[in-house]
Specification:
The chain has a domain of 167 residues. It is 68% helix and 0% strand. It is built from nine helices and no strands. The radius of gyration is 27 Å and the shape is elongated.
């Protein structure tokens, strides 16, 4: 064989090998850079979440329009945690922040408006505690369901998400006890508000009924997909769904009354789609 041909062939192989090594090095550099960026983002998000946790727990009472601020943080956290671009570690941090926001919203709605020792709180003050608009509540529930259904998950993430789901439905409970006749409520409200207490009471009741129906519809549509996610102990999600329906319908003893099979003995899948 001609030595010159061998030399040219050897040089071509060396060039090809050099290009392959350079391409491999560039890929490794991009991969390492991506890991560094993810680590930096995770570090920054961890710091942000710690600031938010402290601010929400200790400083939120000094701010005006607290419910709107909590909703915006909660809604943004759920949106980010449900994104396919969000890593599992970041999703866990975001869900924990969302859970703190939801807990603070619930406290603001159900704790005594004037404090435990207040003697000036009226029945009207308790009933008139502002709740997030129905549209905001629907946004929270929809994005939370999307976050639960994301492919990548962990036990810690699921625990936070299910706790948040349960806390959400507790937050959406009506302040008006269905067992208390409207005439009794009207009597309690008499003299606390001039002329408009009946209209306010009716409006609150209608808005609450609308919210409950929308929550029920969303849950009915998505519950089977949630039950199909095999990530927790056998039967836990079924009990969670039953607990949520108990919150929505306090006097419910069986899901059979809503057209669903009862939970008897071994938990079973609930055919709610369709």
């Amino acid at each position: 064989m001609n030595p010159q041909v061998n030399s040219l062939s050897g040089e071509a192989e060396m060039v090809g090998l050099r290009e392959s090594i350079q391409q491999l090095l560039r890929s490794c550099w991009r991969y390492n850079k991506n890991l560094e960026e993810q680590a930096a983002q995770l570090h920054m998000l961890t710091g942000w979440s710690q600031i938010m946790e402290v601010s929400i727990s200790r400083q939120m009472s000094f701010l005006e329009n607290r419910s709107q601020i909590l909703f915006e943080v909660l809604d943004a956290s759920l949106s980010s945690s449900a994104s396919p671009d969000c890593s599992l570690k970041m999703a866990i941090i975001l869900t924990q922040v969302a859970l703190t926001c939801m807990a603070k919203l619930k406290d603001g709605r159900f704790l005594c408006p004037g404090g435990v020792n207040s003697d000036n709180v009226t029945c009207l003050d308790i009933i008139s505690v502002k709740q997030l608009p129905n549209g905001a509540c629907h946004s929270i529930l929809f994005k939370l369901v999307m976050a639960i259904l994301r492919h990548e998950t962990s036990e810690i993430s699921r625990r936070c998400q299910y706790a948040l789901l349960l806390s959400y439905f507790q937050y959406c409970r009506s302040m008006l006890d269905p067992d208390v006749p409207s005439s009794v409520l009207q009597y309690l409200l008499h003299g606390e508000h001039d002329g408009e207490e009946e209209l306010d009471l009716q409006k609150i009741d209608e808005e609450q009924a609308e919210l409950a129906q929308a929550n029920f519809s969303i849950l009915r549509k998505e519950v089977q997909a949630i039950l199909d996610v095999d990530d927790v102990g056998f039967g836990i999600k079924e009990l969670l769904v039953l607990k949520i329906f108990k919150i929505l319908f306090p006097h419910l003893r069986s899901l059979k009354n809503l057209g669903f099979p009862r939970f008897e003995g071994t938990p079973a899948r609930i055919p709610l789609r369709g």
